[in-house]
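Q: Could you fold this chain for me?
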Amino acid sequence: MHLTQNQTAEADLALDRAPRTVTTLLVGKLFSRGSAEHLCRIRNISMTGMMLETHHTLGHGSWVTVELRSGDRLEGSVAWSSEGRAGVEFAQAIDVDHILAQAKASLERFCGPAPRAPRFDVECAARISCFGRYIDVTLENVSQSGARIALPKPPREDTEIILSVPGLPSRRCTTRWATEDKAGLIFLEPIAYNDLGPWLEHCNLDS
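A: Sure. Below is the predicted structure, expressed as structure tokens.
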């Protein structure tokens, strides 16, 4: 089939107007009406929508918000969902280049042993190993890159410890800060998305 010059120009114009889809892997915090916070990953994004991965089941038409580590919030309704993935249509068109630039800048600001990632409030029993001693603690929040724990006498700043949480792989970490009864931890190796996501869903079911 041969196109005329006018048809070719019209096709090129339509292509220019088509939403540009960018493949990415942005980790975010998913909010859905009537449910708790969930971990998610944006696999691709355009000015009109995104495809995300989540261990939380999303129904067709559900309204969702994804908060990125940069603080940007993407809102829309679920157009389809299947086997841990969902397509979301934005309520309003977004500036994809701006979103990606903000995400990159946020990652660079918090670069180091473990980049800052979305944190999730939890409350569960855990244990740390510090200088050969085992100490029971309460895990208050967690992300792929760190956690906050509560205990009577926290280790000093920059102390290396091992954190053990039921259902998650043990993690070597260092204390980033400490107060009278709390400490912030940085994992030397981030928790894998496919380890933390299902664990958070299990916590949500138990709460």
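A (continued): The first strand starts at residue 22 and ends at 32.
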